[in-house]
Amino acid sequence: MPLRRLAHLTLLVLALLTGLAGYYAAQLRFNYNFNDFYPAGDPDLDYYQGYSQRFGNDNDYLLLGVEAPRGGTVFEPTFVAQLDSLARQARTLPHVLGVTSLSTLRNPVVEGVGVYELPYLHPQDPSRRAADSALIFQTPGLVGNVLSRDARAAALVLQLTPDLKKPPGDSLLAALHAAAARAGLPDARLHLAGRVVAQSVFVDRLKMELMVFISLAVVLVTGLLRLTFRTWWGVVLPLVVVLGAVLWGLGVMGAAGVSIDLMTALLPLMLFVVGMSDTIHIISRYVSELGYGAGKKAALRTTLRESGFGSGLSALTTSIGFFTLMTSTIKPIHNFGLFTGVAVLLAFFLSFTLLPAMLVLLGQPQLREPRRQGHSWDGVLGGLFSGVLRRRWGIYAASGLILVVSIGLATRVRINSSLLDDLSKRDPVRQDFAFFDRQFAGVRPFELELKPAGGRTVYDPAVLRETERIEHYLTATYGLQFQASPATLVRATRKALHGGELADYRLPTDSAELAGLVARLRPLRKKPEFRALALPDGSAGRLTGRMGDMGSIRADALNAGLRRFLRTGVDTTVLRTRLTGSSNLIDKNNENLTLNMIQGMAIDILMVTVIVLALFRSLRMTLIVLVPNLLPILVVAGVMGLAGVNMKVSTSIIFTIAFGIAVDDTIHFISKLKLSLGHEPNLFKAVRRTYLLAGKAVIVTSLILVGGFCTLLFSQFDGTFYVGLLIGLTLLFGVVAELTLLPLLILDIYGRRKRGAREVREAVVVP
């Protein structure tokens, strides 16, 4: 089949496939599911899912904080009326199951067969304000929950329908803002916190940032391609190929029914800058062949033959670098690794089908600056190569010093995360969450299941005593600011039966009295507020609460102390307990981060080792390839330690991805070296020829990669910002090591037995 007809047929088939990919890509939706960040397959996750079915999710709530007017308190009559209006409106909104508010709370009192609910506040009677405030501050469970410690803010606690999605969640948030405006409360005095808030903000920002990153990357890459090739086709063709690869990658995601989340939102940019590598190597070599006088067909044939092998290996290693992320138990990271790895292979396929077809149909290209004796890049790279040889010992010394310092600084990196650590501390949403940590009990949920032993129920006297002992520990030592348990129900019932007096808010000491209280509770056991703390048959209970978000390092220390107390300070023959909850699961991710990172790096290193051994059958060459690629990883780890950047879910992917991408140019270099050695047995001349042939593509692709990742510096997510910064730094250090350390190691270690002392001396002065 004639070459041009084959090119036309190739373009037709690829166009049809691209249309299909576009159809599926259009089905993609943005999503931020907090539950996806739980460690999949973990026994604690299975346990929590069963716990949630019994008692409900611990993050299906929304906190709405309202500040009193400047200089006033929440006990002012006008403010109480506004708060009451907001609470009553909120109670009528869809997806709101219940509202707890200072203005609507009642103090129940049982007299005879009747139950009376007395309000805590009497805003129409100023003479009772002091007594009301004193009662509220003395009543357990109010301060920190619905009232701030300084009485200058109140909170509404809204219980929502389980697992509320973004569209209805956004409607609820908008309705609450409208309700506050009708109540005369300006937005400046409102603070919102909860899963639906984070979900709304994250998804909206993902959409915006995805467009910003792609736009910036297109502008940046277009400029670099223009400066490099100085021809219109040298700019347009790579962009067509890579944008097609991005569309194919998104189409595969859409066909698999996967949503775009915080991690997979990086796929288009990642693929755009990584997928550009093969097109740069192809066009760079193609232009070189044309510049040296080869015809179009001959130049294209040579380019595909010599670039295909190295590009195939580099695509394999890069995709494996992403595939290793599938070892993560965190679903967003798993999906990101899977679909980005697949997309890298698709980009390679398009680079060697679509790009050659377009070059065939392009006609005889005219170079902007044709040269008879090579390119200006040859002079630059030749001078750089000679300079590297002359400064070999300085390069070795500097590399060793950097290695030692980096390892020392890397030991300072800590694994630490918080609920909203992907948002900067200056972000309004994170400041709202911090407002509740500062003024109220906090936003971090706490969950402990209570399981009576020996046929007892949660209302058994011995079980209640052990429960109260745990409560005292959580308040005094653990730092829990607000908590509720079956013991809370018993104490509240006793208080109600004794005229609502605070002195009677305690567990009964008389078993007969306790039996009477439990009998009173029996008709109420199926009510939502009771079932949330104890099963109707009393076989299990829940100790729930909220606290400040102190970070996973502090949380791990507190949980270790709590577990010791539960083992030694609680009678397990009476009451067994288990720590659970969404916060506990998020903290558990940290235990897997280091293991997942080590697994990913080990797989990457093993694959590179296999490739190099297959090419050169030399352990020396394997060591030579690994050193200049592992050194930048250690340098960036040192930068993290120096800057105090913590390891967390979003930054744990940095090293695996950076190594997989950085080794790409090394694979290109050694594959070209292998081909050069087939024509030129002299190692020094083969290395120099490879340096001149591959150097331009290495520099250009590295600049594109670094620039592409630097666009992430504009992200409002701290995790995304650090992914861009640290991977960019890794690749920058990587290209320096590639152009300095790699050729020296090849000549001095791999070629030790191949060259004599005279050739070494001559190599240093060769221009």
UniProtKB/TrEMBL annotation:
Source domain of life: Bacteria
Positions of the SSD domain: 239-361
Subcellular localization(s) per the UniProt record: Cell membrane
SUPFAM superfamilies the record matches: Multidrug efflux transporter AcrB transmembrane domain
KW Chloroplast (keyword) present: no
Membrane-crossing segments per the record: 210-229, 236-260, 266-287, 308-330, 336-362, 393-411, 597-616, 623-643, 649-670, 691-715, 721-747
Gene Ontology CC annotations of this record: plasma membrane
Keywords: Cell membrane, Membrane, Transmembrane, Transmembrane helix
Bilayer disposition of the protein: Multi-pass membrane protein
Primary localization: membrane
Name under which the protein is recorded: MMPL family transporter
Species, as recorded: Hymenobacter polaris
